[in-house]
Write a structure and sequence with these properties.
With 25 residues, the chain is mostly helical. Helices cover 92% and strands 0% of the residues. It has one domain (1-25). It is built from 1 helix and no strands.
Length: 25
């Protein structure tokens, strides 16, 4: 369960990063 949460958080951060990157572009 903990591993799933970690992976989910990691994916979420990556998604936010890409969204912010597209916003700045």
């Amino acid at each position: 369960m903990l591993r799933v949460c970690y992976l989910w958080e990691k994916c979420l951060k990556e998604a936010i990063k890409s969204i912010l990157f597209m916003k700045n572009k």
